[in-house]
Task: inverse folding
């Protein structure tokens, strides 16, 4: 029920956006993420973007995973 | 899929598991609070791959499952009123209440429509101005801001036929309630990922400080979960519980401030009735007086009748982490996803449905 999946913002019109999920276009409300821009990935939950995915942090986590697995 | 596949690398997963096996010594009980985590853990077979000394327990993080029968009866009673359209997320309509379910009510003539989003409920309201549209508002902090947004949007559009039955619940108080009951002895908690997107990681600090229990906020891919378990093991082995975020691409320590503000504009904290746990003060969200005209409870008179709990169903103690679905005599026999007796078998994130679909070869 708290499911949210990454979606790429293709266009924005006011508080509404068109997002792409694996080639499928859907509507998303940006009421909870007013800072979102075209080209951002957001976490989409029941038709609302609930957060903008931070690509730098995503990269950091992958690095951390590598480091931890090497330092086992 | 970007931001998904990278966190599914099996090679990296194996190495992380090795690390966890090497480092984890103390026996530890970890609760995954969120039903979404339970599903991910089972789907990827992670339980069997963790060391024997780590025991995983499912928590109450399934909004459908924790909705009390009495509240469900209210939703069904609202559906029996004339000129009312009930809108609800899918799983909710199949949950049996005391005498019926929304699905049965629909078969008997009630207008019950499944929606994917509160946006869809607004669309139905715009298209049916002669009817009252009541949205059955279940969900935690992940969902509540979206419902708050829908109420503000209805206000802005002057839609005067949109109502919400707010059964929203908040997570930190129920974590506290479960810990205070003292029935489960936890070493660590995998904190809910998408609840934390909204509320951040600070609200869990009391768990580390006062209860000395390790906390890690996790995402939903296998590497996210293994990273969270690794962080918990580290905290447990070093005896230094704290709150870590193992899902930094989505979760900030301070959460999503605009979403919190929206939620606080429309809702105020009140008591909530949790299945299996009972009424817990300050664990729910009620619509503020200012937005009373959107509150289904304030605008319709209903008599939901006396509450009956499903006979033999132990969902309540499963939600508290005291029992597992295997302890239920009805599991897999009388109670299946096709013929669910209790909500934990209905919801796709309910523990019983997860055990049923993915099995549990360790029996733990
Ligand atoms: S198996 Fe069915 S009856 Fe038993 S606890 Fe789960 S939902 Fe309730």
Result:
């Amino acid at each position: 029920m708290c499911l949210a999946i990454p979606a790429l913002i293709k266009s924005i019109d006011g508080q509404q956006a068109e997002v792409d999920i694996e080639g499928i276009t859907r509507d998303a409300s940006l009421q909870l993420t007013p800072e979102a821009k075209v080209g951002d990935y957001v976490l989409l939950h029941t038709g609302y973007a609930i957060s903008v995915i931070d690509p730098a942090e995503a990269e950091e986590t992958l690095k951390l995973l590598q480091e931890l697995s090497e330092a086992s | 899929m970007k931001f998904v596949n990278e966190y599914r690398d099996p090679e990296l997963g194996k190495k992380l598991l090795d690390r966890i096996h090497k480092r984890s010594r103390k026996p530890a009980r970890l609760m995954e609070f969120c039903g979404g985590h339970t599903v991910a853990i089972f789907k990827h077979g992670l339980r069997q791959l963790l060391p024997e000394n780590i025991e995983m327990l499912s928590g109450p993080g399934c909004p459908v499952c924790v909705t009390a029968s009495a509240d469900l009866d209210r939703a069904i009673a609202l559906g029996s009123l004339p000129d009312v359209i009930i809108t609800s997320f899918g799983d909710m309509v199949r949950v049996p209440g005391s005498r019926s379910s929304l699905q049965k009510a629909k078969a008997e003539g009630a207008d019950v429509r499944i929606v994917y989003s509160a946006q869809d409920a607004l669309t139905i309201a715009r298209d049916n101005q002669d009817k009252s549209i009541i949205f059955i508002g279940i969900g935690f902090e992940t969902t509540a801001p979206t419902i708050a947004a829908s109420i503000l949007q209805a206000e802005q559009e002057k839609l005067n036929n949109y109502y919400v039955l707010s059964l929203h619940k908040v997570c930190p108080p129920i974590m506290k309630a479960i810990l205070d009951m003292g029935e489960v002895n936890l070493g660590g908690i995998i904190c809910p990922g998408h609840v934390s997107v909204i509320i951040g990681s600070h609200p869990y600090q009391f768990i580390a400080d006062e209860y000395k229990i390790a906390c890690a906020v996790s995402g939903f891919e296998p590497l996210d979960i293994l990273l969270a378990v690794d962080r918990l093991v580290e905290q447990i082995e070093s005896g230094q519980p704290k709150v870590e975020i193992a899902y930094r691409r989505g979760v900030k320590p301070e959460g999503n401030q605009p979403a919190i503000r929206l939620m606080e504009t429309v809702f105020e904290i009140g008591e909530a009735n949790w299945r299996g746990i009972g009424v817990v003060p300050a664990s729910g969200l009620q619509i503020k007086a200012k937005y009373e005209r959107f509150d289904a409870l304030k605008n319709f008179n209903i008599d939901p009748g006396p509450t009956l709990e499903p006979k033999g169903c132990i969902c309540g103690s499963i939600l508290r982490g005291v029992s597992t679905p295997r302890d239920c005599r009805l599991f897999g026999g009388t109670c299946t996803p096709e013929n669910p007796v209790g909500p934990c078998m209905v919801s796709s994130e309910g523990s019983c449905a997860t055990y049923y679909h993915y099995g549990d070869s360790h029996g733990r």
